[in-house]
Amino acid sequence: KARELYADTHLGFAEVEIAELLEKAGFKEIETAIVDREDVPPHFQTLLAVATR
């Protein structure tokens, strides 16, 4: 739905993908959480990631 509505070419990242990217970049103690989700389609989510280096 987001692809059609907004012509997005990349639909974002899953929590696990963000954690993997942070780990590959040298971060430790990685925590991720979905902190908000839109009620209406396409239900965009806001993801928070916290880590140490």
Outline the structure in words:
The protein has 53 residues and is α+β, with helices and mostly antiparallel strands. The protein is 28% helix and 34% strand. The chain has one domain. A two-stranded antiparallel ribbon has the order 1-2. It has helices at residues 2-6, 15-24, and strands at 28-37, 45-52. The N and C termini lie far apart (37 Å).
How would the blueprint of this fold be written?
Layout: H1 2-6, H2 15-24, E1 28-37, E2 45-52
Antiparallel strand pairs: 1-2
- In which order are the strands of the major sheet placed? 1-2
- What is the average of the pLDDT values? 91
Number of strands: 2
Task: Briefly note the structural class of the backbone.
Answer: alpha+beta
Largest sheet: 2 strands, antiparallel
Helix tally? 2
Strand content: 25-35%
Helix content: 25-40%
Distance between the termini: 37 Å
Shape estimate: elongated
